[in-house]
């Protein structure tokens, strides 16, 4: 699917499949085209080329178009507010067809499910943000949509509420069995909610996979950096190997002379104490240790972040350590890079190979 505005491809050849009972998160930075993709699927915007199918049936191409209200798609957007003049029950019943009794039964069932039965006659302004969100979920699910499209649905909620509501929402979505496409710019939200993450950048899906795979085998440096801070160690390939102060790294199939970047997350740098000017002995798993001096160390709650200035090139590397670890600035320590936890990419961040 392609969608351009003023000649710019905002959605550039995106192809997605979402399965019933599964949550796919469209994850990416602000402006990368996530919402536009969702709006085209919902039918409130229209792609310039490409087709959208639901259950194998075409619902939209550039000629044919099923109107949004007949697509069996539920919408839950952050700014998709409840109708203020309607009660909770009437809000949920809004999109429902059938007899009065059937509607009442479905409304009661859903409000019970989202734990809002006690508020059935309330008006939206009488509810907290989290409660409104639950009613919005009930309303979107009421007609039994085959697909649920959710655009940053939790971003209006305060932090304390958010995790609980995310988990409850996920449970209900799974029970209802809809195929869910959820847009978010927060990696933690995607990791928490998704069966599959589609990582989007500049209008394109750059990687798809289970959260574990996307996190642990990022397609390129930028994909790695989207999920956490990263350390980058430069190198040049000779004979399928890259020599660095941390020892050699494998770069199979990479031509000699190619500049590469070795990427490692702060939690995967190993720290060892200095023993009379020496570090740990080299191993096949961790390579060679390189010496650095603590610049600063901060306690972050669950972990401590320690910044080192490396002796070999004066670069700064960041390491995180669980709990409290606050060595004094000026302390010399040794860092090693776990070969099974680092990624090797061609310089410049183009998608390429991984592995250490
Ligand atoms: N109706 C429009 N007219 C012109 N440009 C638009 C329109 N809608 C979106 N854009 C542009 O398309 C790009 C992608 O927007 P989109 O809202 O899809 O991104 P997004 O990834 O959802 O970002 P965010 O998380 O900030 O909502 C942006 O540069 C935006 O300015």
Features:
22% helix, ATP binding, elongated, ABC-type ferric iron transporter activity, ABC_transpr_FbpC, 6-stranded mixed β-sheet, 5-stranded antiparallel β-sheet, Rossmann fold, binds adenosine-5'-triphosphate, Mo/tungstate-bd_C_term_dom, single chain, disordered C terminus, cell inner membrane, OB fold (Dihydrolipoamide Acetyltransferase, E2P)
Short description:
The chain is of the alpha+beta class and 356 residues long. It has two domains: 2-223, Rossmann fold, CATH 3.40.50; 228-346, OB fold (Dihydrolipoamide Acetyltransferase, E2P) (Beta Barrel), CATH 2.40.50.140.
Topology:
Elements: E1 2-5, E2 8-12, E3 23-27, H1 34-42, E4 52-54, E5 57-60, E6 73-77, H2 88-93, H3 100-113, H4 129-141, E7 147-151, H5 159-176, E8 179-184, H6 187-193, E9 196-201, E10 204-209, H7 211-216, H8 221-227, E11 231-238, E12 241-244, E13 247-250, E14 259-264, E15 269-273, E16 290-299, E17 303-310, E18 316-322, E19 332-337, E20 343-346
Parallel strand pairs: 3-8, 3-9, 6-7, 7-8
Antiparallel strand pairs: 1-2, 4-5, 9-10, 11-12, 11-14, 12-13, 14-20, 15-19, 16-17, 16-19, 17-18
Helix pairs in contact: 3-4, 4-5
Bound molecules: adenosine-5'-triphosphate.
Bin the strand percentage.
Answer: 25-35%
> What order do the strands of the largest sheet run in, or round the barrel if closed?
6-7-8-3-9-10
Q: In total, how many beta strands?
A: 20
The sequence of SSEs as H and E is: EEEHEEEHHHEHEHEEHHEEEEEEEEEE
The 3D shape can be described as: elongated
> Helical content, roughly?
10-25%
Q: Could you tell me which ligands this complex binds, including any ions or cofactors?
A: adenosine-5'-triphosphate
Which spans have pLDDT < 50 for at least 5 consecutive residues?
351-356
Number of helices: 8
Output the CATH class name of the largest domain.
Answer: Alpha Beta
- Through-space gap between termini: 36 Å
Instruction: Give the integer mean of the pLDDT values.
Output: 92
Spatial extent as radius of gyration:
25 Å
Q: How would you name the oligomeric state of the polypeptide chains in this document?
A: single chain
